[in-house]
Amino acid sequence: MMHAFAITLFVLWPDFTIAFAPSGARSASLQEGASTIGERLMQDATVRAAVERVKQDEPRVVEDQMRLCAIPAPPFKETARAEAYKAAFLELGLKNVRIDRAGNVLGERQGAAPTPHLVLSAHLDTVFAEGTDVRTSRSGSVIKGPGISDDCRGLAVVLGVARALNDGGIRTPGSITFVGTVGEEGLGDLRGVKHLFNEELKGRIDRFVSVDGGGSGMSHVAVGSLRYRVTVRGSGGHSYGNFGIANPVHALGRAIGRIANLPVPREPKTTFNVGRIGGGTSINSIASEAWMEMDMRSSDRAALTALNSGFQKALDAALSEENERWGQAGQLVMERSIVGNRPGGAIGADAPIVRAVQSAGRAVGLEATATEESTDSNIPISLGIPAVTVGGGGSGTGEHTLAEAFDSTDSWKGTARALLLAIALTHQ
Ligand SMILES: [Zn+2]
């Protein structure tokens, strides 16, 4: 619950007011403001007390982390964890708590004004299939459990920030919507955050922070990806009796040979991978169907577009080559389905939101190392909305494996940084 004596944090330094104004003419003070926001917030007794309380309350954050981790959230089946998250939002006294049509959990905390409107978010889903044992075990500062870091850490930190604002009686200048998203991982294809920006809160989000996993990292470069499933079909037949017809497996082989030679720039890093291939009936059958899955990535839209065009040409050439080899134009048909499309982009290293992360980290002794990732922030970054993905403190290892673990040594710093950042980003 928000305390009745809530103090509005109008620590509104004039230069920070300018800090997020889009005026390029005043760029000198623009950067000045965000670069020290964390340190200056810490000069406020109310904020300092809230940070001190975060340090004391960290065991609760870790408890939430373990509790949420033990609720399975396989891809496309996040409902049980979403319900638990919703209950936590209600307990915190957040307003308009709801689960939207995509399955995201939302809860609002009003500030002195509706804007700037910050979304502080973490993702509900894991990469682990249904039936995976997601129970956690603890030994000293280390907790083991699939998903304990990615992203139960983020989910718990988001709750920790809401609790710290409430307990500290802090009324932020702008407002915050706390969110747990669905579909961040793999074939979830960011469907939760896409729904958030394209429908649920369309046009109403000024800044976005995703707390994803442990550690001190910060990502303002969003690696975009494009994924295809390609299926080739033909009549198929006996490997001896029907020899002389176009072969779907051979067509894919021709395609992969060309794909393997596609040129890509080293900078910006641009990658491709045929990750899976399958099809066919038996060793002595000409397949009637074969398929493969292709993943292409880059933070640079033009590089990704160029790579995709090379990929499409490789497919066209392979198909006609295989058909022509047997003098059977049109014998094989190819289906190309996009199974993943995550737009990429980058926020400048000197953008106010990036400076604010660094400053908030410095204020609590957490050095932000820059990383490049594909996360929920891809969507706002591709839309030109200031966004970063930050680690939730402590340190995670073995993410996306059954041996995933989280070391909670000094993890309060991650919660404290997220708290300072949340307050900072509600300022004009
Ligand atoms: Zn994650």
Structure commentary:
It contains twelve helices and 21 strands. The chain has 428 residues and is an alpha+beta fold. It folds into two domains: 10-222 and 346-424, Zn peptidases (Aminopeptidase, 3-Layer(aba) Sandwich); 226-342, Alpha-Beta Plaits (2-Layer Sandwich), CATH 3.30.70. Strands 2, 3, 4, 8, 9, 10, 17, 18 and 19 form a nine-stranded mixed beta sheet that branches. Strands 5-6-21-20 form a four-stranded antiparallel beta sheet, with no helix packed on it. A four-stranded antiparallel beta sheet has the order 13-15-11-16, covered by helices on one side. A hairpin with a 2-residue loop joins strand 5 (137-139) and strand 6 (142-144). Residues 1-7 and 10-31 have low confidence and may be disordered. Zinc ion (ZN) is lined by residues 123, 150-151, 184, 212-213. Zinc ion binds next to loops.
